[in-house]
Here is the input.
Amino acid sequence: MFSNLNSKLYIFMMCLCICTATTKFLFWRLFSMRWAKKLGIATFGLAIGLAGVGLPSAAQALVFDFSYTAGSNTASGTLTTNDTPDGSGYYIIQGITGFRNTEAITGVVSTNGYTNNNNLFNPTAPYFTGEGFSYTVASGSVNIRAGLEFDPSFTSKIVSDFTASAGAPEPSDIGGLAILLGIGGLMVRKFKSSQKSTTFIAETKAKTLVS
Here is the structure.
């Protein structure tokens, strides 16, 4: 199972391959100084597109899909965390969306806001610490920790099957990839158009000399 970091690295490497292949193509086909200048501009454009995809930065968040069952209660949704784990591999949960039974999950409870929660999350079992993570629904606050869930009435139930997996790439990653591919396509179209124009001018000059 790929982590968010691995998925972002995969996208980065794919874009790097596209950038390299496009640059080689232009070096092979373009010889004049005029095209060399255009190559510099095009390469700069590709660099911008590649930076839009990039590897995770300090400002980016990670996304994890989760689900679990605790007695008759079920919950599922998406956790949003910071991108850098602590020394024990735990991330800080910054946001949550989803449903618990029929109630929408509305947000994260601040640290120590319910059952001394610390809102730490690890993508591997046991996922939470002994203090756990707390979130809100319409009926109150819920805490989930290593193996247990506490409902709004502070009744505990055993969590039987908590699962978590890396979610889809952030929209900024997908957008950056689209920008990069768009720039590459535009470069090729402009090159073909300019090549046709150059060929037409050369043929016109040749006909003029012949006549």
